[in-house]
Amino acid sequence: MSNQEYIIREIEQKDNTQLAFIVRNVILEMGAPTVGTAYEDKATDQLFETYQKEKAIYFVLEHQNNILGGAGIAKLDNFEGNVCELQKMYFLPEARGKGLGSKLINICLEKAKEFGFKRCYLETLPYMNGAVKLYKKNGFQNLEKSMGNTRHYSCDIWMIKDL
What we know:
Oligomer: single chain
Order of helices and strands: EHHEEEHEHEE
Largest sheet: 7 strands, mixed
Helix content: 25-40%
CATH superfamily: Gcn5-related N-acetyltransferase (GNAT)
Structural class: alpha+beta
CATH architecture: 3-Layer(aba) Sandwich
Strand content: 25-35%
Number of domains: 1
Radius of gyration: 14 Å
CATH topology: Aminopeptidase
Number of helices: 4
Shape: globular
């Protein structure tokens, strides 16, 4: 499959069910906790509605009318400052290793710059080795502690990138 067959587009309401399934299945696949992660977030079932606010956007990765993953940008919760968060970036196995993660990160970061954010924060889990490598490859650097309060207390890898 060539990357031309993949479409990255803004989320639509009809995508909610498929995306919630992807988020939860990837968390289970990685052996990650279901508490203190996106697995239990109410927003996971309502991603379209969650991103219908100022300076927020969620993109989906689609192939032949099937959603294979997605990622979003929004202001970092409970933090004073001009920092956004890369949120809910999950890909099914068939979308991994094709450069699509970097492409989606770049689209999200360009949008973050358009929104006027100066830095981008993210949280992830040590179980997600591939994701950590991807974030580092895209210029994210490790932090000693979390920023804001995302309520994802099981996520203990924190990263930041200047935009």
